[in-house]
């Protein structure tokens, strides 16, 4: 009898142990269930948010489709305009090419002209140098001629004073016929000299001047 009682006590103890283990397992499962419910709630909220976002995206997609249609229409118009623009561009490119050819020819012509100008400047410089040399030589010769002419005039004047008077048809000296219109002086008082303002001709480079009379008394020239 006691053995049966001990067996039942032992069996009850085992059952209590099993119940305790089952309760622990149930608590663990309840905890997992609570976590699962929380995740489900979060997922449901995520689904709701996703549906809202999907709705927004659908609206944006429709707007984008409308914009795409408008852009396609603009592209079509631009393509049509581009065809004519291509023709204009080709024409402009042809004109540019022609202008570049003309520019190259003009630059070559400019280079040739610059070369010719440089040669002409060199030649002109040489001629200027020669002209300066000739001018200097001519100036020296003119000074020499002027000095010789002055000397000749002085000699002629002295010879005129020393020369006996020529007797004309009326028995008077020819010099006496020339009278100063200012003071009335005649004869030896009237000197004949060259008029440097009147060149009659040239003998080589030497000028031949006209003659004029100068009154020795009053200095009047006539």
Describe the structure.
This protein is mostly helical and 222 residues long. The protein is built from one helix and two strands, in the order αββ. A two-stranded antiparallel ribbon has the order 1-2. Among the domains are: 66-163; 178-222, no CATH class.
Essential attributes:
two-stranded antiparallel sheet; 222 residues; 1 helix; mainly alpha; 11% strand
Fold blueprint:
Elements lengths: L1 H161 L27 E14 L2 E10 L7
Antiparallel strand pairs: 1-2
Class per helix and strand makeup: mainly alpha
DSSP helix fraction: over 70%
The overall average pLDDT, rounded, is: 78
The number of distinct β-strands equals 2
What can be said about this structure in brief?
The protein is mainly alpha-helical and about 220 residues long. It has one helix at about 1-160; strands spanning about 190-205, 205-215.
